[in-house]
Each structure stands twice: as structure tokens, then as C-alpha cells.
Task: structure prediction
Amino acid sequence: MTLLAVGKVLYIAVYNGASISDVIFGPRPRLLRNSDPFMIDPYGRTVNYLRVSVTDRCDLRCIYCMSESMTFLPKPELLTLEELDRLCSAFVDKGVRRLRFTGGEPLVRKDIVGMIKGLSRHIKSGALEEMTLTTNGTQLEKHADALWDAGVRRINVSLDTLDPVRFAEITRRENHGQVMNGIAAAKARGFLIKINMVALRGLNENELSKMVAWCGAREFDLTIIETMPMGDIDGDRTENYLPLSMVRASLARDWTMTDTPERTGGPARYVRVEETGGRIGFITPMTHNFCESCNRVRLTCTGKLYMCLGQTDSADLREPLRNFPGDDRALHAAIDEAISRKPKGHDFLIDRRDNAKVDRHMSVTGG
Ligand SMILES: C[S@@+](CC[C@H](N)C(=O)[O-])C[C@H]1O[C@@H](n2cnc3c(N)ncnc32)[C@H](O)[C@@H]1O
Ligand code: SF4
Result:
């Protein structure tokens, strides 16, 4: 009886020109801002950093990230750039201060720099502090100027080796020269650059010290990352797993490293290299619990929100986005609900029985 009455009211209202959202939430102007802009999770952590994987596609096939025969999402499943803009803007409305675009390879998505440029309106308004990018560098030479014009000032470039032959071995592609040109173009344009290097036993472990010197000479920060068990790859990740405790011990033979108290809300712990003045960040998800200060959530190119890199729970934001065009209240409510489910921490585990503990690839959530 009551259900019938509600249905009748809905029908009359929609028949008279109201949208379903008007009926459910009351009439509101387009894209109203939420009155409470801060996202605080159940453990009291403020969430103010959003990482957005704008595509799962990539022009490289790094052996620890994906298999050679990786299956990518059908293109129609991807959110449009307009939808990504609206989602990012909703997060800015809710208190996100930093956006990082990643992938897959973000720069292989057509017109992505245009979208970033559009979002720079939030920097101009003061709502957003910065937009950054994590890239493999293959397309960087082509896009460095446009990215600068779009308001990006800091870029992370993934580079596991300075040796072209080893680069081909790790990425299964021959673009080493292209990446080096991309890094040079970004440096010339004035970007602050951080190099991401995944530490790989038997592949680049002998090059770590050389990379510290190379980065130091160019005033690049360096982040060294442990392999994480995410998604199936052709081989066994344990073969190349190199704990960063060992990396640090081996670097200590060549460099004087002083711990710094810097924290970014992420998994890196930083040291200052006295000889070069540069910084090295160690990302040790496997051997160190970095979750207590986590300030971030991750959005996929299909509109799924992952509240933790190392867990499978997610929230679907595509539905409220598409079902309520021009009205963000359902979207804001879905974001709030997702944040209320942000877990205390991850439980990554790398072992031979359960190599891919989290079955999605890093290219889905962007790392
Ligand atoms: C997934 S990539 C996406 C952005 C871009 N394609 C790149 O490579 O920089 C982001 C970062 O994740 C790292 N990564 C990918 N798979 C990983 C894994 N299984 N364990 C640890 N790091 C991984 C990459 O080395 C890269 O630095
Ligand atoms: S790490 Fe980045 S560049 Fe390498 S395959 Fe994964 S997404 Fe592509």
C-alpha cells in the first residue's frame, strides 16, 4: 500500500518534469557543492588525495606489472573524459587537494592533457593545490609543453634501468631512447622530476647505486619500490622480489643516507643522500606498514573507487554519475559511503602459493 503511494508520487512528479533525483533529494541547481567538504574515514584520517587511473592501456609491458598478452578493457567501458572531469571535480568539492593522473600509461589516452588543462580551473580557484602525473615517459617529449601549460609542475617517471638492453628485458619494448628524451624534455621545461624504480632481484639490483648518482646529478628525487603482488603476470614475482631492507643496506656501502622526517601520507619513507643532496624514498608495502597515515583513494577509468591499494573492496561511482546527470548529490553520497568503508590497512603477502594476492593489476588502480 505504502509502496504504491510512493510510486504514484514519483510518477506524478516525473510526469510533471522533475528528475528522479529532484524527487528523491528535492530540487537543486546543477552541480551544487557539498556543505561539508572534508572526507574523514572511520580511523580519523583525512582523505585529500585522489589518484586517477585514466586508462588501463599501456605501450610497455613491464614484467612485474602485466603479461605480454594482457587483455585490456573494451573502450566503451571507459568513462569519457567529461565524466572523469566531473568525478575529479566532485572529489575536489569534497576536499581533495591533490590529483595524480596515472594508468596504465596516462599519456596514451587521447586528449588527456586537454582534460588536465580543464581541471586546472580548480587550481586557479584555490580549491586544488596541485595536479601531478605518473608516466613511463615514452610520450613525455611530445606532451611536456602542453602539460606545463595545463598547470602540472611535478612528474614521476618510471625508469627501472639506465641500460637500453635491460630496459627491453624489463619492459619487453625498445623505447629506452624515447623515455630518456622524454625525461630530458621535462627537465628542460622545468618540471620537478621523481624517478620511480622498482627494485628487481637479478635484473637491476646492481644498478641501484648508479641510479642514485644519475638522479643526484640531475636533481631528481628517486623512489625505490618493492614489487607488489597485484594481478597475474607471465612469471613468478617472487623470482624478482628484492626486499628494500637489502637495497638500503647495499646503498649504504656507497652513500651516506640520513633519515628525514618527511611524510606525504603515502608509503614512502625518505632519506637524504649527503653526497648528492638528493632524496631517496623507499616504498616498502611488503615489509613495512604505511597505512596509519594513508590520505588517499584510487579511482579507475571505469569509475570504481578503491579505498585501499591492497584490498579488493571498491565502490561503484559510475552509476550515481550516469544516473543523475547534472546533479552531484547522489555522487557525493556514494563517495561518503565509500570513505566510511576505507579499511585500516592492507594485508599484502607475497608467497608462492598465492602470488597475486590482489587480483587486479597495478595498471587498473595506477599504483
Ligand atoms: C602502474 S604504473 C602506471 C603509470 C605509468 N605507466 C608508469 O609506469 O609510471 C605506476 C607505478 O607502478 C609501478 N608498478 C607496477 N606494477 C607494480 C607491482 N606489481 N609492484 C610494484 N610496483 C608496480 C610501476 O613501476 C610504476 O612506477
Ligand atoms: S608499470 Fe606502467 S609502464 Fe610498465 S606496464 Fe605497468 S602501466 Fe605500463
Q: What stands out?
A: Residues 58, 64-65, 102-103, 105, 134-136, 158, 196, 198, 225, 227-228, 230, 362-363, 366-367 surround S-adenosylmethionine (ligand 1) (CB under 6 Å).
